[in-house]
Design goal:
The protein has 495 residues and is of the alpha+beta class. Helices cover 61% and strands 8% of the residues. A hairpin with a 5-residue loop joins strand 6 and strand 7.
Amino acid sequence: MRTSEQIKAEIEDKFGFFPTFFTPAQDNPQVLENLWQQTLAAYVGNPLSSLFKEKFSAYLSRYCAVPYCMVCHSCSLLSLGVKALDVLELLETPPPTETEIDEHLRVLNAHSDKLTAMEDWSAEVEESILNCSIFTFIAGNDAEYYRNELRLLLGSTNYQHIVSFGCYVKTCHVWMEAHPEVAYSYQADKRVINNLDALIEQAPGLADFFRDYREMVRQEQLNWAIKIAQINERKRTQAQIMQLNADLQRQTAELEVVNQELESFSYSVSHDLRAPLRRIEGFAVMLLEDCDQHLNTQGKEYLKRMRVSTQQMSNLIEDLLSLARVTRGEMRRQEVDMSAIVGAIALDLQKTQPSRQVEFVIAPGIVANADRRLVAIALENLLGNAWKYTAKHPTARIEFGTVNFSWGQGNPSAIANTQSLMPNPPIYFVRDDGAGFDMAYADKLFGTFQRLHKNTEFEGTGVGLATVQRIIHRHGGRIWAKANVEQGATFYFTL
């Protein structure tokens, strides 16, 4: 093992002086040798450019509790031709953000063919590598992604030179902080003797920075910690949202499969029920016609009730099949003349009961981008209901048109006024002045088999409005209603 004097002589020969950095170890040859070999391998012999090493050292020294390393390396930068004001700007600049590092990585990617050989690094490339290196050393575990990117871009060898140099700088900081007796002895360092006065003269702010940097960096670190915490919280929130979205998509897909299976089942069952139902009705008719003389009055009444029940069942099956069809077919959106469809339906309804006094008020020129077949089914159900529930009034009025109103923050059915506060999307309505209903039961309106009136008052299967709602939902719209008992009802919907 060499003596301390031998090691000291080699250090003086290499630097031209013996830096006070080594002074605490000069009585311990083993430690001195260790420090010197680290300095030779990671600092002196490191192939990174001198400018890169001094900038990297000076900046990382901001995070050292004593100013020795920062002052010495700042003086070295002046000797390398860096202006004093640029040294001050380097030291005062906050650490780069993730956004800035992303931009530096883009620069490096654009010059990826010139990153393997250090001699090919341009000033722009070296500046980007410097910022990325600073970030990866300061950000710790939060910089894992950027460390991997830098390693891939620079190659393993160049990346290891940067890592070994950064580790050496940190070792120097720990060494100096552990020996406060020499922490402020930089005045004896040849680099400081030769350059500090000129450095302070050209950039007086450096004197204040060297004196007060700890408080500035402490506040900076606090802000950095807050920022990192916010970023991590945002990442956690984003991850939770992504997981929730994935779960929702999975559940939606599963629900769609279940719905398709239920619709297929409903369609199949309804379709298969029609044949035996027709046979039942057929046999009932045959009994009435062929065996009339053998049946008493009560038997004939039973057969008549059977025929009425089978007809009701047949209507229900047809409605269920219609409900299944509206969700099974492919939608074909096009410009649809809603006014014309309503007019045709109104004409058909009037032909069924020409004696009724019903006035149809149809706003002209209403068009929508929709599936014509499905919209016609929805309007047939809505207008059919209006026709049915006005039947007990001597005169009636049925309207079709559009209104606009503010959706507000609550129930969209709570119309504030008819003034246009939100012109899009258009809101269509079908209004009548018939039986109406109690709004307390409005939540049951669109349920399958749900009816708000007795079958003895108004016939129906309770499937029509459920069909309408499915059609509206397939168009991405909404449907709701307002009504009062014996004052009519209005159904609003969007497409």
